[in-house]
Amino acid sequence: MGGSAVLAGVLAWRLGRDGEQLALLWWTPLVPLGLVLGIVDARRHLLPRRLIIPATLALVLTGSVAALLTGRTEDLVRALLGLAAAFALFFLLWFAWPSGLGYGDVRLSASLGFLLGWFGWAELVIGLYTGFVLMAVVGLAGALTVRGRGSLRRHHAFGPHLLAGAWLALFLTPWLATLIG
Question: Hey, how many other C-beta atoms are within 10 angstroms of the C-beta on 61?
């Protein structure tokens, strides 16, 4: 529980600093849920749909109401397009290689697509891409530390990497924008 409080505090600092207090409505409740999903997926290689589907529906509903009440319809449209794009991409990856990606990851991508899409296309792309990079780094590190070819075929949970990638994108994208721009 302490980890959720620390992460929620860091999140409030980041979003409050950039005038995104509205996004705290749906990001803050998802901090403990994201931690639970990451831990469950890491231990059991399972992202329970009974947690992800209601969370995604609540996320879209809350975000839609907040956006309509505050006139931020452009952000809402981008978030909904982000949801659709992330879900479509992950669905195609799952369809092409079902043993390499679980359907729970496909469901999770919809939520992350909405959350990251709200902030912008750069956050969405960086967030999803960072999840893949983190997965590759962990897999490579595991292959280098464990001898034998069997370690290369070992399945790793992807959910924790996706969640960490989304979290990092929220913090890295503004920094990268100042670095590039």
Answer: 11
